[in-house]
Queue: 4 jobs
Job 1
Amino acid sequence: MSTLGAPIESLEGIGETRATVFHGVGVHTLGGLLDYFPRDYQFESSELAIRDLTSGPIQTARGEVTAVNYAPTRPRPRFEATIDDGTGKCGLVWFHGAYLRTKIHPGLMLRAKGKVRLYHNMPQMTNPKWEEVAADTATIDQSQFRAIYPASGKLTSEIIGKIIQQNLKQGIDAIQEWFEPEMLKKRSLLSRSEAYRLIHQPPDLRQAMRARRRLIYDELMLMQLGLGISKRMRDGRLTAPVLRVDKLLDERIGRRFPFVMTDQQRNAVYDIIKDVQSGRPMNRLLQGDVGSGKTAVAVYAMLMAVANRMQAAILAPTEVLAEQHYLTLGNLLRDSSVSIELITSRTRKRDKGAVLRNLAEGKAHLAVGTQAMIQEKIEFANLGLVVVDEQHKLGVRQRAVLKGKGLSPHYLVMTATPIPRTLALSYFADFDVSTIEGLPPGRHPIETRWMRQKEGDRAYAFIRQQVALGRQAYIVLPQIDDDGLEESRSVLRQFEALAKGPLKGLRLSMLHGQMSTEQKQETMGAFRDRQVDVLIATTVIEVGIDVPNATVILIDHADAFGLSQLHQLRGRVGRGGERSYCLLLADPPNPQAQSRLNAMTRTGDGFKIAEMDLQLRGPGHFFGTQQHGLPEFKLADITSEMELLQQAKDDAMEILSKDPKLERHPALKRALAEQLGGDVMLAQIG
Ligand code: ADP
Ligand code: MG
């Protein structure tokens, strides 16, 4: 076993108890210990002669204990000691220090560190930190710049620092360089071992930052290599069905839509056509603001697959959306021979067998489903295309499940949350991107207004007016039920209150996640058919729902929602030619919520909103941290490392093109293998 793989128990300074704490924070080996990085740095002043102690900052001195005293005065009993180093005497005082009576006694040599005050010209430290020292314990003879580690359990930053110090040399000697010297020079990077030494024991902040930069670069490099390898694999080895479109088929598909595609949509379709006739699996991200018409593009691609005698599947993040896709496709394909199956977690057991058989035997051409669909292993006779709608709600990993044997299907991902550049370079680095800018013609901007909770009645009156004009409305609430705890925040309560009060006489209906598939389907159907005027719902309608006759959305307790979420919800209206409105009900909330609400009233641009949301909440919220399927970083902050990220990407591509199996980069290859674990990707590069 290499030195870096040495178990933590075997290291100097670590007994069973400490080993357990380290295991608890994921440190199992010497290598893991070196990767336990400081969270900050601090100056520690030199050790001074007692004569030189001055009133003020934290200082350190040592001396022999010449006297001790315990004063059990109330309310603050104190333990006092005096130390002498030959240059002078220093008083030490610990309040509530009774426990020190058995520890500190005359004759003991100790080193104390604390804030100093002068009393009658004698320095005194209050509640100093202290440790026993021997006569030959080296003095801290330089101002020291010290690493601060994330403490854990009984392991303080100081103990961790000491353990790392004891084991650092051994560890560093075993660290191997990943890159050739020219590359280090080109990017002004420290060597790997130097970086490890300096991140733990830097002489100053500048050196610490150089060390960090190198190690961040390494993290980004591993990620880029992983992505690069999977892209090369797809490009090089995987073959995908060749799908062809001629003018006739293009027109036939076009006629299925009740509108003419915009140029932006056509461009996205061209991108897709180019990809799917290459014989290699498409991996394309389609982004565009809410309501920009992404579904039509996806449906085009699916019909193209079917026309080429392949099956296609579309995955949605919610059942409601899956059901809507099912309906949309059903309508578009009325009077055709294409057969569609819907699979959600609530597909009835006895139906399911038949559904699965139809897909496995190729009798069904299109499959519409939720994540439930990919969690189970579903067999397709000849799957040619997978569409994932609203990717920001789904994980990257999940795609693997639907790939599999034989030809790899083409893969199209749609997101209404635009991907900021840094994320496009990282999490989505192995996607090609098509963007639909703007909205279909004839749309008015959605008028957005923020009103106080007590202005609710005005909002309801406005909804009544719109309904009188033949339009429909959504009312969104943060909760389904509130068990009587809070007034008016829940769908169940508001439904009753509104039916008896402000919206009396209108046709109201509810939609939330606790309803059965049948109930939900029925409700959405009734709303679509205009048998319901106002739909009172939770965020189940957040993504994708498309009812162009709905012109108002009232978001009650809007401060309870995130910015991207509010924008998505707003996107439920303004989908037809009529003027549409978004009413936000909220009392002046905390500053964060206030900036969200202000952003909503100020801009309707989803790209701007996404940038703002990224700043407000960080990338974790963007995808749900656990879901992106890529390694977590210890040091790198993916939102701010634009430059290093770009460099790491360029370098990774260069390395892979010159040394595709990383034969000339053995240390790098090992690190990558370790990070990816038993991942298939690596098995493939051999
Ligand atoms: P997204 O999924 O991007 O939010 P959708 O695909 O649901 O948007 O489209 C929004 C609405 O615009 C739908 O009602 C759709 O029928 C309509 N639409 C899409 N493309 C066009 C177009 N080219 N012309 C007119 N209406 C369109
Ligand atoms: Mg959509």
Job 2
Amino acid sequence: MLAKTPPMGWNSWNTFGSDINEDVILENAEAFVRLGLPEAGYEYIVIDDCWSMKERDAKTGRIVPDPKKFPHGMKYVSDRIHEKGLKFGMYSCAGVRTCADYPGSFDHEFLDAKTFAEYGCDYLKYDFCYMPETANGELMYRRMGLALKSSGREILFSACNWGSDEVHKWIRSTGAHMYRSTGDIHDNFESMKKIALSQEKLLGYSAPGCFNDTDMLTVGMFGKGLVGTTGCTEADYRTQFGLWCMFSAPLILGCDVRKLSGEMLALVKNKDLIRIDQDEEARPPIESHTGWGGDKRVYFKHLSGGEYALGFFNLSDSDQRVQTNLTNFGLSASSGLALSLRDVADGAHFGKFTDYISIHIPAHDCRIFICNLENA
Ligand code: GAL
């Protein structure tokens, strides 16, 4: 089964946009391996938009890789990526053109799926621009879903219609393994926060086999690259990564992996956070917004094996106390039980709580714990 747990990898778009080529992709794949990301669970290297010629081949009707960017073709890139023990992902679009105006797969779905399979592709991101006015988006995703299944290769189907057309209600039925449930992310705190908060009511739709995708991470970009706007602080990125993990979202890095280091590298490799994200039950968190002041969230998530994850998020622009009553999550005072907390940042025991937890958290930051129920 593909996408038993949320897919993990890297995608070229956030940093490189149209500025991609064989070297950029293979150097990022090399850095990916050197930094130990595969051991942490990351596996897909995905080339986004702008990889092809502007027009299809007139004779064969096939999409053709741009020889200036990919002089050895896509099978070569795919082989080099596979040699590193990684998986190879590509991009196309349900409309007649991609979002950056390259050929889309509309009415060429089966031929394109076959072409991608021949490249040795393991993952297809499928966008939503330039749809004919009367075309039905759901049907277009059904077509590519079947085209990939019949391509002769197991290819993970990553749908990207930005959360439109109530996609959460029908996307699983198309065979997709993940789907963008939001618009595009930009590398600033407000963009990330808007995306995260827009997901609260949709998290129940995300489950093994097909996960809600809150877009590629901007962690580690620090304002550099295509979606780079103002950039974020380390606290902002801790919060972004923590939210994605609490939401069981796909973890697709979008930074220049060659420059990923220090705290941010440790963050994206944090074993406890990845365990929360990759928990096989993929349960949505229970959400609580108790306490004074706005823009604070506490999420409580059941994990497999009798554990829980508890995340305190201060999404406001000032330092705050973030509080919650454990009764929100089902713990009653009469149970005789307490929740024991261990901080994912350093593994330290944080305390045992029976009813109420209040933690001081700096602006934009978070605290996340793995918890067990014990006798009070
Ligand atoms: C957008 C998509 C982005 C990126 C871009 C490429 O529609 O949401 O993630 O793929 O197109 O042009």
Job 3
Amino acid sequence: MGNRKIFIGGNWKMNKGAGESLQFLDRVIKGIKADKYLMEAIPQRMTAVIFPQAANLFPMYETLKEYPLISLGVQNIHWENSGAFTGENSIAASLESGAGFALVGHSERRHIFGETDEVIGRKFRSCLGNGLKPVLCVGETGSERSRGNTETVIAHQVGSVLTDALENGKINELVIAYEPVWAIGTGNNATASDARECCSLIRETLCRIAGPESAENAYILYGGSVKSSNARIYLQEDGIDGLLVGGASLDPEEFLKILLTSLF
Ligand code: PGA
């Protein structure tokens, strides 16, 4: 993993109101402050990012100003700067509310809300152009895997978005999460070697499109039923730089355990 920081994302999806979000932060910050090791290691070696519902970003940001141990991300943005797009989050408003990152192409956006590679590409490009770091999520469905199409699907998802983004010229410190759809929210996590193979395929695709430096600097994450008891098996693999955690990131005790186990 070299000197790269470990990236731990907590995707809260459509869970937690403002009160519960602040209680979570209170518990996690107390937990970190009570542990000398975590207190030192997190700022030096980890990028921890929580993706709450957009309405909770600002109150969380206000709390975190005092404790910059955890960063914030928005779960979804629109590619246009502003306008008549009822229900969407603009990048500018997300930045102002304290988000530094945005999830783009999460499987729930692809499969429940019908986002295409083209839409995902626009969002990704717009993030890069406006100072919000996109976390691009890719991954095959169960039936794509059983038909032997995993590699083609992943290479296509990464390729279509990045080739587009390259026209914009900027491509640095990318974050890409490999999240097999069949592993999300199912308790059926990928094996460490399957995750390693797909993460290395992502890095190869990146290298082909964006060159070796971009590929080397990118953070490639695994996500899909990660919890404190399996987090380390992925981080021990070469080429897996972090984790994107859904369900297990909602519980402050479990989230603290994931932070701790990821740093060893
Ligand atoms: P999960 O979700 O950890 O609950 O499987 C991961 C994700 O959707 O990012």
Job 4
Amino acid sequence: MKRTALILLAAIFMLGSAWSLDQQSLVNTLASTPPMGWNSWNRFACNVSEDLIRQTADAMVASGMKDAGYQYVVIDDCWQVERDSNGNIVIDAKRFPSGMKALADYVHAKGLKFGIYSDAGTKTCQGRPGSRGYEFQDAWQYAAWGVDYLKFDWCSSSTQDARSSYELMRAALDASGRPIVFSICEWGTAKPWLWAKGVGNLWRTTGDISDTWQDHKKWPDGSCCSNGMVDILDQQVGLESYAGPGHWNDPDMLEVGNGGMTTAEYRAHFSLWAILAAPLIAGNDLRDMKPEIREILTHKEVIAVDQDPAGNEGSRVRKNGDLEVWSKVLQDGSRAVVLFNRGTAGAEIGVSWEELGYPAHLSAKVRDLWQAKDLGEHKGTFSATVAPHSVVMVTVTP
Ligand code: GLA
């Protein structure tokens, strides 16, 4: 009897560890490069509907964004209105009359993936029902709808512990049996880069981005601070070692094309997000893109820097006032480099091979990515004139 019980126990234990190994691999094979997609919030806020999502999925294909690598179509806040008497989340039926399953099917039929939003607290940031206390029920529901990506916010979280709240939803997603990319949106408050690897596939490192170059003003309640693009950038310095395949720092979604910055500023924004190996989640109206915006969002060589399979996050290797150099080690040993001029006058910016981790005597090919133009062999240094609020982005290949 005793022996049988022991064998039984051992079998249960082995099954258990096989299950958890399996669940681990489920987490770790997702988002092996930074997720690419679109999210409704930056441009549409609460004005979401199934028409918008269908048209956006159509536009993602027609505009060439899908071919460029964009995959996830994510509905942010405001799709949900209440819970029914069984605790099931209720969709806004006026805005989503066909329901989420039908919408997910539509997105999937386009060869794309479908994402949704909820919150670890009792309410979302727009006061809709959050998932607190309903984590497993909600995860099961998302899986049944065919959800592939969950952004999970942090409003109305009161005294909740961030790590255990996100671990709980991680467990719920695992139990749902569906591989779902898990996007932690905790604004960097509890330093998720220190604990969220293995919990989420990406984690926000800051408060919300705004469609401005630089901002950093206090909010009306006196708390700190709104973030323009460069304010967000500054908060990434020092976080680079925490990112890698399956687990990314998320400096927030793109504002490219939303109208608050110039085309050169949007090109800088996109280049810097690529060098950071940031998730590339477009936040503009894909149905109505100016050609220059489409060109930025679909630029294959810049996207390739973001999606480099080694998964290294780039870092700032030099700052001289408004003039900065950012560099990222690519899988083939070459470097992607952004020469970044934050100032209001054009300036010459140079980078030395030592700053890139190369010996000075090395001869290397330099290629301008935005111009898709080879700039020849260089030895020891490279420099270029960079327009105000602009970048020059190159690869350096020994
Ligand atoms: C928070 C998030 C944003 C967005 C809104 C929605 O502010 O950080 O990205 O999801 O909530 O209400």
